[in-house]
């Protein structure tokens, strides 16, 4: 707006207008740039398709920029491919996210690609077919999860879980060295659905620890504790349905294979729970009510928040408990390599019952 104000004064020297008045007269359809409009953690397949659709719109092909709306508007790819073939340009430029090597690390960056029209049509056709299947799986998964929650027997529960971003320990007043060497706390959020008569009961849990490893061992340690808590509240509990996103290091591996959502679509109530818990802890620190330097400090604050009306329940786990789980899993999951068979691995015992 400041740059526009300066440009307006240069182009209209005969008009005198103060900066505040210029800002106030901004038309409502002119939206200020804001990081609130920034979207992160997007689905890779959705974003790749969106970028290609954006490139087609730049070529004059007027189609919806929303991939989900696009596949509903066009039952097959034929009409879309004909529209691309009719474009005069011989090559098509579009952006794509690619994994590149930078020093010793790999990172994703957005790169512009220039592809011959025939090659682009072939690629777009193939990826659009894959995207249709991807979107169908997402829809079916969410419909099935809704059905499961609505028709839960009283001896079954649904646990929707995810690791939140680590909580950065802060104090209201801290020295310079502490600011640049802040510690973190691991938060694993869980939302549990159960049946209470004709209604669905929802209870939130957060596992807190100084152990920052977000792997299958940490998940196993947490779930052992959660199962005991759930059995205490419902001795008749027989089945637990675990739902999660799909990172291979946490929930989708030989150690901890749960029901997981389509890649890029693991957004859940757990994300809101984690943000709410961290915001509440930050507010307590800002008000000088508490100084959080470790998981034990966080749990002490959590206990006080529970007494003041918070419905979220907390429990912690230690480094010793984590190492004990690691030893148990190593003993139970002792792989034996079968020569000549790709990915054929036999385990001594894959049953992870307590």
Describe this structure in words.
Residues 121-148 form a coiled coil. Keywords: Coiled coil. The protein is of the alpha/beta class. The chain has 3 domains: 1-31, no CATH class; 40-151, no CATH class; 153-346, no CATH class. Helices cover 42% and strands 21% of the residues. The chain contains 11 helices and 11 strands. The protein has helices at 2-11, 19-24, 44-58, 67-73, 78-85, 117-150, 176-180, 216-233, 269-286, 295-307, 319-332, and strands at 91-102, 105-116, 156-163, 167-168, 184-196, 199-209, 239-244, 259-260, 313-316, 336-337, 345-346. The strands form 3 sheets. Strands 3, 4, 5, 6, 7, 8 and 9 form a 7-stranded mixed beta sheet that branches. Strand 1 (91-102) and strand 2 form a beta hairpin. The longest helix has 34 residues, at 117-150. Mean pLDDT is 83; it is low at 344-354.
Total of domains: 3
Strand content: 15-25%
Low-confidence stretches: 344-354
Query: Helical segment tally?
Result: 11
Element order: H for helix, E for strand: HHHHHEEHEEHEEHEEHHEHEE
What is the tally of beta strands? 11
Helix content: 40-55%
Beginning-to-end CA distance, first to last residue = 62 Å
Main β sheet profile: 7 strands, mixed
Q: Average pLDDT, to the nearest integer? A: 83
Using only CA atoms, what is the Rg?
26 Å
- The general outline is globular
């Amino acid at each position: 707006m400041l740059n526009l104000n300066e440009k307006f004064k240069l182009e209209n020297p005969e008009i005198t207008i103060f900066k505040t008045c210029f800002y106030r007269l901004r038309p409502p359809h002119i939206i200020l740039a804001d990081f609130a409009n920034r979207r992160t953690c997007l689905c890779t397949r959705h974003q790749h398709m969106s970028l290609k659709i954006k490139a087609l719109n730049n070529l004059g092909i007027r189609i919806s920029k929303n991939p989900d709306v696009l596949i509903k508007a066009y039952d097959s790819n034929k009409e879309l491919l004909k529209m691309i073939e009719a474009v005069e340009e011989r090559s098509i430029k579009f952006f794509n996210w690619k994994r590149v090597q930078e020093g010793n690390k790999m990172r994703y960056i957005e790169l512009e690609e220039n592809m011959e029209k025939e090659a682009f049509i072939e690629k777009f056709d193939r990826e659009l077919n894959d995207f249709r299947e991807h979107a169908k799986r997402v829809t079916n998964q969410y419909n099935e999860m809704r059905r499961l929650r609505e028709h839960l027997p009283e001896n079954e529960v649904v646990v929707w879980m995810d690791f939140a971003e680590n909580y950065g320990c802060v104090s209201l007043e801290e020295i310079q060295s502490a600011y640049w060497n802040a510690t973190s706390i691991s938060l694993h959020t869980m939302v549990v659905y159960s049946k209470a008569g004709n209604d669905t009961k929802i209870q939130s849990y957060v596992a807190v620890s100084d152990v920052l490893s977000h792997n299958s061992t940490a998940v196993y340690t947490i779930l052992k504790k959660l199962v005991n808590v759930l059995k205490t509240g419902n001795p008749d509990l027989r089945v637990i349905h675990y739902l999660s996103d799909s990172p291979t290091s946490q929930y989708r591996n030989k150690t901890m294979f749960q029901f997981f959502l389509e890649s890029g679509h693991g957004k859940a109530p757990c994300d809101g729970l984690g943000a709410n818990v961290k915001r509440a802890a930050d507010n307590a620190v800002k008000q000088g009510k508490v100084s959080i330097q470790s998981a034990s400090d966080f749990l002490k604050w959590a206990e006080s928040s529970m007494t003041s009306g918070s419905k979220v329940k907390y429990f912690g786990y230690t480094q010793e408990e984590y190492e004990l789980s690691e030893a148990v899993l190593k003993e139970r999951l002792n792989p034996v390599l079968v020569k000549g068979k790709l990915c054929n691995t036999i385990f001594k015992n894959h049953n992870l019952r307590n």
